[in-house]
Structures are given as C-alpha cells and as structure tokens.
Design a protein that fits this description.
Shape: globular
Distance between the termini: 14 Å
Largest sheet: none
Number of domains: 1
Helix content: over 70%
Structural class: mainly alpha
Strand content: under 5%
Length: 184
C-alpha cells in the first residue's frame, strides 16, 4: 500500500465489504420496533466495535509480521479468502431467524457477531503495515452508516437484499485475498 489515495480506496472497499455483514443483519433487525434514537445507538455501537476489533487484529498482525516475515503475508491473504468464501457460503444458507434483540446485552452480542470478521481483516492489514488511523476511521464509519441503512431499510427489502449484500461483501474480500496471494 503505497500512496494514501490508493490505500484509502482499498480500505474503503474493504470497509464496505465488512459493513455489508452489518447491513444484512441490520435488515433482519429492522423488523423490531426501533426508535430513531435506538437505531442511532445501534449504529454507533457497531461502528465502535468495527474500530476495536481491527485495531486488535492489526496489533496481532504486526507482531506476526515481525516474527514470521513473508510467510505472514500469505497467511493474511489466505485468511481473506477463507473469510470471503465463508461470507458467500453463509449468504446462501437457509435464513435463520435471530433470537438476539438489539437491546442491552443483545446489542453487544449483535455488535460483536458482526465485527468478528473485521479482526481477521485487521490481522491481515497489520501484517501488510496499513495506516492504523485510516483503517479505523474507514471501518468504523462504514460499519456505522451501513448498519443505519440496514436498520432503516429493514422490512421492505430484507428477503432479497440481505442475501446478496453478504455475498457481495464476501466476493470483495475473496478478491483481495486472491490479489495478496497471486502476483498480478
């Protein structure tokens, strides 16, 4: 990642891909009767989790990079491929109804569940030495905005868009993983 414009573009694509998971889960959560204040709180919470999880991943990734050198880069690419395939696979599985409500402890479980994949991506970005502040801003804002969008759109398009949004996010991560592994 050489130029800041190129890195910003790449990070925004990754942030969008990770945020699509929050968007698709938000579509499902949109069926709950939520006030605008509650929707705001949910988006901010998920945005914060999408800051902390990649930060932890980046710290671990930098450590791995220092310890294992070039092999750590291949591990990072493989991680993105696995994560992308898993997201695509999950998008086509039968719809399971969530018993987690976005209130109290349920909100933290919800936020953690949609931000776990950002830890893995943070690990990869840490291995490659991405700019930490840029990663955290991109990931946090994208997750927050896409969560709000998912919750607000909610009921109307949940059945159709929910599946395809997660598949799109998985495809983007899969492509980045392949790019890291293959010298193109």
């Amino acid at each position: 990642m050489t130029t800041i414009a190129g890195e910003l573009f790449t990070l925004m694509l990754m942030a969008f891909a990770l945020g699509m998971d929050a968007f698709s889960v938000g579509l499902g959560m949109g069926m709950f009767r939520l006030t605008k204040r509650h929707i705001f709180k949910i988006g901010v919470t998920i945005g914060l989790f999408h800051v902390w999880m990649p930060l932890l991943g980046m710290v671990a990734g930098r450590f791995l990079s220092e310890q294992f050198g070039a092999i750590a880069g291949y591990i990072g690419g493989l991680l993105l491929i696995v994560l992308g395939v898993q997201m695509i696979w999950a998008s086509f599985k039968e719809d399971e109804t969530s018993v987690i409500t976005p209130v109290g402890k349920g909100l933290f479980i919800f936020a953690l569940s949609v931000s776990l994949d950002s830890f893995s991506v943070g690990l990869t970005l840490g291995i490659y030495g991405a700019r930490t502040l840029l990663v955290l801003i991109c990931f946090g804002i994208a997750a927050m905005v896409l969560t709000w969008a998912g919750l607000l759109v909610g009921k109307r398009v949940q059945g159709w868009l929910g599946t395809y949004s997660e598949a799109l996010g998985g495809s983007i991560l899969l492509a980045f993983g392949l790019k890291l592994l293959l010298p193109l």
